[in-house]
């Protein structure tokens, strides 16, 4: 994975970095409304891959990577490319510029490693010192989308339990 992040320091030359695909329309949440589906391609990046580029050069490189990923997805999923109506490439520099994250860190912070093994459970909780106030964010769980969703469910469960015991 880390070697793949180095690929983004240049132009695509027939090889893509390791990446994942998240098709957010695959879960019927009832929120879609029948419009376009959100599909995200995610992977590792480094701020240094983009830091020295002039804005126009960065935009051009991002477009070339978008073309490469879209072509690869269309190869693996015929018709994918024709279905794309909008596309956007956010990189580590984007995270740094838009969110002021250190070195383009996706989550905006460098979490401390667990003091005990992960098998003992994540040592964070949606609970706060303020009665009736719970956090529903990646900061209250293990990080990222999954952590945010899980902490939201945990926060709702805690709030309902608190209300039931009043």
Structural account:
The protein is mainly alpha-helical. It has two domains: 2-104, no CATH class; 118-164, no CATH class. Helix content is 37%, strand content 5%. It has five helices and two strands, in the order αββαααα. The protein has a two-stranded antiparallel ribbon with strand order 1-2. The longest helix is centred in the middle third of the chain and has 22 residues, at 55-76. It is globular. The N and C termini lie far apart (50 Å). The model has no long low-confidence stretch (mean pLDDT 85).
Order of helices and strands: HEEHHHH
- Helical residue percent? 25-40%
Number of helices: 5
Rg measurement, Å: 20 Å
Describe the secondary-structure layout.
Elements lengths: L1 H6 L12 E4 L15 E4 L12 H22 L3 H4 L8 H8 L44 H21 L2
Antiparallel strand pairs: 1-2
Task: Produce a short descriptive summary.
This protein has 166 residues and is mainly α. The protein is 37% helix and 5% strand.
Question: Which structural traits does this protein have?
Answer:
2 strands; 2 domains; mainly alpha; 5 helices; two-stranded antiparallel ribbon; 166 residues
């Amino acid at each position: 994975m880390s070697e793949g992040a180095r690929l983004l320091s240049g132009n695509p030359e027939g090889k893509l970095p390791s990446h994942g695909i998240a098709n957010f329309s695959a879960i019927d949440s009832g929120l879609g409304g029948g419009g376009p589906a959100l599909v995200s391609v995610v992977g590792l990046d480094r701020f240094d891959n983009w830091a020295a580029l002039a804005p126009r050069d960065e935009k051009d490189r991002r477009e070339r990577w978008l073309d490469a990923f879209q072509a690869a997805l269309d190869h693996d999923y015929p018709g994918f490319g024709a279905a794309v109506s909008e596309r956007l490439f956010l990189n580590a520099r984007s995270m740094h510029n838009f969110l002021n994250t250190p070195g383009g860190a996706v989550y905006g912070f460098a979490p401390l490693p667990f003091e005990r093994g992960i098998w003992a459970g994540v040592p964070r909780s949606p609970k706060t010192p303020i009665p009736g106030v719970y956090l529903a964010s990646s900061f209250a769980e293990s990080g990222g989308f999954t952590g945010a969703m899980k902490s939201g469910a945990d926060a709702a469960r805690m709030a309902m339990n608190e209300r039931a015991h009043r």
